Amino acid sequence: MRTKTVELVASPRAPHFVGDGFRVHNFIPSGFRLDMQRMSPFIMLDYNSTYKFPPSDKPKGVGVHPHKGFETVTIAYKGKVAHHDSSGGGGIIGEGDVQWMTAANGVLHKEYHEEEWSKKGGDFQMVQLWVNLRARDKKGDPKYQAIKYEDINRYKLQDDAGIVEVIAGEYNGTKGAASTFTPVHMFNAKLNKGGKADFQFPATYNTVLLVLEGNIIVNGKEETPTDHLALMANDGETFEIEATDDAVVLVLSGEPINEPIAAQGPFVMNTREELIEAFNDFNTGKFGYLED
Amino acid sequence: MQSSHLKAYLTSNLDIEEKEISSIIGSCTIKKIRKDEFLLRKNEYCKHTFFVENGLLRQYSIDEKGKEHTISFAPENWFVTDRESAYFNQPSAYYIQALEDSEVVAIDENFIHQLSEKIPDFAGFNNKLLHNHIRHLQKRINLLLSASAKERYLQFIDMYPDILLRVPQTMVASYLGITPESLSRVRKELAHKHFKK
């Protein structure tokens, strides 16, 4: 087994608002070594670092918009989000919950701060990820996996080092609650100060670590502070993280999908022609209709 | 910054070396503007034609009641200007504003002169562009006078396939000369007809 080394540690870029409800630092896709092809299957990662929203009677959020060709994964660390879609589906993503939405051949939805939460306001911290799908899976029907916090399996680390919550994939025999189309591992490593955890993924898997709370050291030398992202190189299989204070780390590792990517706005397809078709379908109502 | 879209556009339409076009474009100003910033405001004099390298611009007027009327959207590879101001030296009646962070090439008369000198065929090409623009304006007048909201909308999505996802519906309605409610109704009817799930 070779060590998987740190390729780079990215600082959070200047935040921007998605709608008026999500204040995010975009990590993927961004120019330097964090582009869609390099990071596949993780083609987008927006991180809403902890941000205090004042109370608002009118819930803030993002209005009606489509998605096609991939999956969106929303991990709520702090705050609550309500969502609705054009086929009548909807739900609430509460603290600790994960919503895994397979947009596949197309959904139209909107997402807002949950009404009661919005009235009180408070700290809001979320990750939204886009996981790409293979060409054949892009054609499938949309579906949701609403994963409640209490249904997420956890692995207890030795020596009171902390726990690893397994959202998808597998960690030391503990399986994730989410089903995926291609191999994806997604964990929340919650480490106590001084706690260590080892991870092992195939060298070819694209792997990143996002530090949500605290500070960590990777492989005994690379410091990765709060709100930073470590991109792991494809040079080995194993690595270790150590928390220098109580830390929460989102660990993502997935098998790359080696297909061409044609992406624009909320559509991620394989070819330019499919993209044009997606815009046409949206414009002519084939995604359905949803009131703002 | 490389004005790569404008270069590609001109080299694919004109018989000119890339090196030569680079030096002519090099004499133009390239502006980076943030979302919501203006390239032109009412009563100012418009000195340029803007070519959009990336981002999105909108040209519009505001009437006495404060209502906005969108003349055009200009996404990547589009030109936008106020011809009355730029070519007839009148104070502008329009605003040109960025709807997204944008990069534009500010083209002036000198640019047109240089191209005309270097390329014998340029006047013919420029005429064709003007005729095409006038054709588009005539169609737009006719649609505004005679077409239903649905026809106007279908024409709009044909011309601007990705704008609906980039701008608020109220702006699209103000381009179509219909109310936002009419636009909603049209889109709802289309969805009702085409949504298969």
From TrEMBL, chain A:
Mark the transmembrane ranges. none
Sequence ranges assigned to domain Pirin N-terminal in this UniProt record: 33-131
- Show where the Pirin C-terminal domain sits: 187-288
**CDD domains to which the protein is assigned, alphabetical:** cupin_pirin_C
InterPro entries noted in UniProt = Pirin (IPR012093), Pirin_C_dom (IPR008778), Pirin_N_dom (IPR003829), QDO-related (IPR053186), RmlC-like_jellyroll (IPR014710), RmlC_Cupin_sf (IPR011051)
Coiled-coil segments on the chain, per record: none
Spell out the PANTHER family in the cross-references: QUERCETIN 2,3-DIOXYGENASE (PTHR43594), QUERCETIN 2,3-DIOXYGENASE PA2418-RELATED (PTHR43594:SF1)
Its family? Belongs to the pirin family.
**Protein's name according to its UniProt entry:** Pirin family protein
Per the UniProt entry, what species is this protein from, by scientific name? Christiangramia antarctica
Automatic annotation (TrEMBL), chain B:
* Source domain of life: Bacteria
Q: Sorted alphabetically, which PROSITE patterns does this protein's record hold?
A: CNMP_BINDING_3
Kindly give the Pfam families that the UniProt entry links to this protein.
cNMP_binding
Q: Where is the Cyclic nucleotide-binding domain?
A: 15-115
Q: Which InterPro entries match?
A: cNMP-bd_dom (IPR000595), cNMP-bd_dom_sf (IPR018490), RmlC-like_jellyroll (IPR014710), WH-like_DNA-bd_sf (IPR036388)
Name under which the protein is recorded: Crp/Fnr family transcriptional regulator
Lineage of origin: Bacteria, Pseudomonadati, Bacteroidota, Flavobacteriia, Flavobacteriales
